[in-house]
Amino acid sequence: MSSILIVDDQPGMRRTLEILLRKEGFEAVSVESGEHIVELLREFKPEVVITDLKMEPLSGIDVLREVKKHAPETIVMIMTAYGTIDSAVEAMRLGAFDYITKPFKNNEIVLKVKKALERNALVSEVQRLRRDVDPIFGAHPLVAESPAMKAILEQVKKIATTPLTVLITGETGTGKTQIAKAIHYNSPRARGQFVSINVAAVPEPLLESELFGHEKGAFTGAIHSRKGLFEEAHHGTLFLDEIGTLSANLQSKLMGVLQEREIRRVGANRAIPIDVRIIAATNSDLEEAVVRGEFRRDLFYRLNVARIRMPPLRERREDIVPLVRWFLSVLSQRMGKNYHITSEALDLLLKYDYPGNIRELQNALEWATAVASGPALEPENLPESIRLGRPAPGPSAGIHEPRTLDEHEKQLIIATIARCRGNLAEVAKVLNIGRTTLWRKMRDYGIEKKPHGRP
């Protein structure tokens, strides 16, 4: 069910639009002003915002700017009187999808909303196709030179055509998310959404609402109804990473979803049917968790219908060279250089055991390109753990080598800031992240931008 937010200071207009759109099968919510638009976007997650142009204290243009700033994928439509069409056209230049003149015909507004949603669906499909062909959109490709990975890709091809629930196991950094995406995009559900969540990363009090959604007033702060990830993944795939960390309460609720194929929002009286494929992943031993009483036996069997075990990188060394080539091609494209690795450095990469698996290999190459003086990556550019052939802490002073993935990221940001002479826009571009994300990471890691670009 598509969700629409109506912003208008006239109660009669809000009510008219709510009734009309709900009759057409849309989920419609209305508010009298855009003062709390950011909270509304986060809580309600509308696909379309219909806003009046002339309002106080925030105008429709102000609402448009806030929506495009905080939820750029959300479609905005402007309502205007006949005398203000010029303003509406200006709003379209700022990113509005269309305008609706008052008074309007019912079928006109319904057609415009449907057209907007069709456009959104087309954009999503284009983005999906780009993810399939553009290496910048993925963490790494499904390289399969090794017998182990060739066997897994054969499994993926067979499993993708079925509706089976899938459990992917393996160490951290082995590529479980990429396998889940491969299953989705090669399945009959490929046109649906691939929605993923690391359940271990969301605090327990918030996770139920994140998964199942909530109704207005369900708890303090629930000022509007909100769809959960199960609803967002309707006709698609929901990927639940770190499934072994799920609480007993949510294990029970997930079991109910798998049995009944319906969900109930927090605070709701009615159930909502869903059509979602579940793919779960874990880096822990779920069988052992079942024995210890920490994971439901019946849920384990429900998830473990089709199982894929991702081998660690040390068990698929034939894939290291093509992975290195791929990562360097992406880094070269991102930084505008033609990076290559010397045979001596490559030899060290081939001998290392990678406790962090593919993610550690990727981080090592990003580190090497950040500290290298030219396009050739030498042994001295690699982290000390790889040069020594075993995980080891680096020195404690200056721009030292990383001891953890977080430490690696921090030092990579520091090195890139120095390399870009403090130009944070360039730093964000080189690291392939948004400027807001860069500022947040600098704040979290305590990195200060000092004069002359030195953090």
TrEMBL record:
UniProt KW Transcription regulation keyword: yes
UniProt keyword terms in alphabetical order: ATP-binding, Nucleotide-binding, Phosphoprotein, Transcription, Transcription regulation, Two-component regulatory system
Magnesium as UniProt keyword: no
A biological-process GO annotation: phosphorelay signal transduction system
Pfam families: AAA_lid_14 (PF25601), HTH_8 (PF02954), Response_reg (PF00072), Sigma54_activat (PF00158)
Sigma-54 factor interaction domain sequence ranges: 142-370
Name listed for the protein in its UniProt record: Sigma-54-dependent Fis family transcriptional regulator
Biological source species: Pelomicrobium methylotrophicum
Response regulatory domain: residues covered: 3-117
Chain positions found as 4-aspartylphosphate: 52
Single Gene Ontology MF annotation: sequence-specific DNA binding
InterPro entries listed in its UniProt record: AAA+_ATPase, AAA_lid_NorR, CheY-like_superfamily, Homeodomain-like_sf, HTH_Fis, P-loop_NTPase, Sig_transdc_resp-reg_receiver, Sigma_54_int
